[in-house]
Amino acid sequence: MTAQDAIRQRAKELLESGEVATFIGWEAGRFHNQTTPLVITDAADADKLVFNEYCVNTLAKYARDVVARGKVGLVVRGCDSRAIVRMIIDQVIKREDVYLIGVACPGMKDRKTDELLKKCAECRHGNPVECDELIGEAGEWPIPEGRFAEVAEIEAMAQPERSRYFESVYAKCIRCYACRDVCPCCTCRECFVDQRRENWVGKQNNVAENRFYGLTRVMHIGDRCIECGECERVCPMDLPLMKLNRKVIQDLNNLFGEFESSLSIDDSVEPLIAYDLNDREEFM
Amino acid sequence: MSVVENTQAAQIPENWEPKIIAFCCHWCTYTGADLAGLNRMNYPANVRVLRIPCSGRMNPQYVIEALNKGCDGVLVCGCHPGDCHYVTGNYYARRRMMIFKRLLEYEGLEPDRFQVRWISGAEAGKFRDTVMSVVEQVRALGPLNLTREIPQFELPPVPDDDGAFDAVPEEVTA
Fold it and tell me: Which residues of B touch A171 (CB under 8 A)?
């Protein structure tokens, strides 16, 4: 039985028994190499679910939107499960609100190039870190090298070039907030960019406001980023957002010890919500 | 942060004065600045002191906004670690500012334009010296010519669309 058949069968059983109210998976898109996320509430729809190597979307954030209807079942790979763990630590959802069907990730392909997605090539955890049941067996997932290779590339540039590089990034940004909407860490009920009365960030689309948004986004996610790479994947302007996220993660690793966020639900102390009396002193 | 080459002194306009904003913790640095005034100490008028309740209140967004809105440098001051009025505020600030300073430098801001210092309520002299050194460092760097509008250079082409949503597919998959 393929993973897809097992997912359909389990989804049907869970929905029929009433154990979950909704089930989140992927359905076939218009093309054979395209899928879209699917939320079902009826067991009869379970046959629409698919699982293939084009399931590029990370599903976890949909759980937040449908959790009000009752317990949510969803298919989780490495990135989905870490996103769910992130949301549980952030108290967006509760562990008992979700039923996680783990599946080993085969590595997803880019629809346009048919090559491994960038986010999957960089992924460090293909197997779910948290699930209620695992379909099939956990696969081999070697940890790729060069986690901070992109960051080192930018750091090697001289200061004026770095300025110009990021200026061109912010000049391209259209502030569609897709990176925020897809991010499992960005779960504030009201984001600072939507607080129009406070006017944190203006309405104009210019470099200054884009920079304000971009830098604030990185600082807000900072120590919680699960490196799923969804922000970069969904960016319609192809901005290198992980270069910013990974810069912060690299510094946190160098300054406050090795860490990776959201690997288990107990692992809830991120470096920026803690302190150490013996931290490095640079500001004397 | 984007800066047109302004590290050469030749490009600094005449009669230009740096504008620096100092975020000072109410319990230590602000009191220290007050003491500097009481002692009739002279320090440059380029610095505008803003009071915050604690260095832990320092929001990185304030720094970006200050630089975006025309400041040439930002100084953040708080109590020495261990002396925080709220016990732990500056320990959190220390971590946050270490990360944020590196992020700004990564984006191309000169390190001297964003500085953090611990200055206690008794260190009026240190406050004066810090302000003087920051003003001199920023003066040497020249004005911060941040790009604020979308520049007139040629934008790279919009990412190629394979036309999937325009074309009517020959065969719709089930």
Answer: 147, 150-151, 153, 155
| Structure-token pair, residue A106 | 């085969």
B60 DSSP 8-state letter? H
Which chain A residues are Cβ-neighbours of B173 within 8 angstroms? 28-32
Over the stretch A39-75, which tens digit does the pLDDT of each residue have?
999 999 999 999 999 999 999 999 999 999 999 999 9
Residues of B in contact with A161 (CB under 8 A): 108
Q: What is the DSSP string of A126-144?
A: -S-SS-SEEES-PPP-PPP
In this complex, which of B2, B82, B164 lies closest to A167 when CB atoms are compared?
A: B2
Domains with residue ranges and CATH for chain B: 17-141 (3.40.50.960)
**pTM for this prediction:** 0.89
Q: In angstroms, rounded to a whole number, what is the distance separating the alpha carbons of residues A29 and A27? A: 6
Q: Which residues 6+ apart lie within 8 Å of A15 measured at CB?
A: A23, A40, A41, A42, A43, A46, A73
What residues of B are in contact with residue A271 (Cβ under 8 Å)?
A: 95
Query: What's the pLDDT tens digit per position in A69-120?
Result: 999 999 999 999 999 999 999 999 999 999 999 999 999 999 888 999 999 9
Query: Which stretch of DSSP H or E encloses residue A216?
Result: helix A207-221
The alpha-carbon gap from B34 to the nearest alpha carbon of chain A, in Å, equals 20
What gap in Å lies between CA A201 and CA A183, rounded to an integer? 19
Please indicate whether, in this complex, the C-beta atoms of A215 and B81 are within 8 angstroms of each other: no
Give the class (CATH, top level) of A149-258.
mainly alpha
Phi-psi region at A263: left, alpha or beta (left = phi > 0; alpha = psi -120 to 50): alpha
In this prediction the ipTM stands at 0.92
User: Which of residues 6 through 45 in chain A touch B, CB cutoff 8 A?
Assistant: 28-32, 34
Query: What residues form DSSP beta bridges with A76?
Result: A102
| One-letter amino acid of B80 | H
Q: What is the DSSP letter of A237?
A: T
Residue of A157, A193, A170 lying closest to B147 (CA atoms): A170
Site from A191, A273, A275 to mutate, B interface, most B CB atoms within 10 angstroms: A275
